[in-house]
Design goal:
This protein is an alpha/beta fold. Helices cover 30% and strands 20% of the residues. It contains 4 helices and 6 strands.
């Protein structure tokens, strides 16, 4: 489980290494939003259209919806970007491990998962974060 501080993760973005699944964990939403903005810009360039990403909420969406959004092309083409707020409230998040992978310059998708905290003691959390980037904000 690669853990990053925000500055380290910005270096990953600058080097064009994008992780398919990124956990933005912590209470500082300003840092998380700034990292999300940099990821958006790194993937889509200066395009600011909201049609290039899907916004979901962990309270009301299912893991199947996240998988669907990640594997479908956005309007206008390019890399799908899925933003999930309150991801710690997802039911059966273990299925998200199907999306994980290694960082590349052009991943098939990028899923940003905002969470207040992750319980590292749980088996499911360890499995979820094994091949995804975890950024402490």
């Amino acid at each position: 489980m690669p853990r990053f501080e925000p500055k380290q993760f910005q270096q990953e973005i600058s080097a064009k290494r994008f992780w398919p699944v990124v956990w933005l964990v912590g209470a500082e939403t300003m840092k998380a939003r700034e990292l999300a903005k940099r990821i958006r810009k790194g993937i889509h360039g200066d395009a600011t259209s909201r049609f290039l990403e899907t916004q979901l909420d962990g309270d009301s969406c299912s893991v199947a919806e996240i998988l669907d959004a990640a594997q479908s092309l956005p309007l206008g083409g390019g890399t799908p970007l899925v933003v999930v707020k309150r991801a710690e409230r997802l039911k059966d998040p273990e299925q998200l491990s199907a999306l994980e992978g290694v960082p590349t310059a052009s991943p098939p998708w990028v899923v940003l998962l905002y969470a207040q905290a992750l319980d590292g003691r749980k088996k499911s959390t360890k499995a979820l974060t094994q091949n995804s980037a975890v950024v402490n904000c």
